[in-house]
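Quarterly update from the structural biology core.
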Amino acid sequence: MKKSLFYSLSAIFFLLPGVLLMLKSVTPVWKWGEAFSFTFTLRGWETFLMDDRIFHALFLSILIALAATFINLAIGMISGKALSHQNFKGKSLIETLLLLPLFLPVMAAALGLHITMIRLGLANTWFGVVLVHLVPTVPYTIKVMKAGYDRLGGGMLEQAQMLGAKPLYIFRTVELPLLMPSIRSAVFLTVTISMSQYVLTAVIGGGSVITLPIIYYPFLQSVDDTVMAAFSTAFALLPIIAVGAVEIVSKLIRANGLVLNRGVK
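Predicted structure, tokenized:
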């Protein structure tokens, strides 16, 4: 009963809006007072793909989001494990400091970091945009991975070490499989936040780094719901594709690890 209720609510609140959004992207604008009729149109997607910059912006957005995701996972897993399994002086203070970027106004952070990026020669570059996207994403990743390591505990890792397993083998066969729910959540959050950044990308990118939000946000002033639905559908699909890609990569890593271990034996 509880499972059916959960699945029903999930379908209502998550799947149904997505289905309606996709339907809206292929139907014309309906005005109040007109007779309702379902007609199929690709005008929204044609407008979306019409811009010459769209494919370059799409590639650059995915590149920046994936680069930010991998850096997030590296920082988040190391920091999350340390905060979860280690006790040291000032632990609470460090954890609080890591969350401070979430409480800073986006514009203040962007303008402050812009000066630093200019001095480092990273302004108006895609890698500079990657680094600035870490500001609103790393705190979430650290919290998510810390929660994952809290659930994992230290007992399994200690047992593997006592049996003589190497750190890389422990990570591949113990940590990675058990942390996959946390990794999925971190990837989804990072990709979604990164691909929706307009202010940080515009300030640090300086108009030279064109991502999907740079093209998308001017359409917010449009009253054409069909075009907006097509843009929104594309935005919604990209985090799902990213999570699927991470899932495939993790399975390949585990499969290769098993093959290598059997070869060693």
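The chain has a mean pLDDT of 80.
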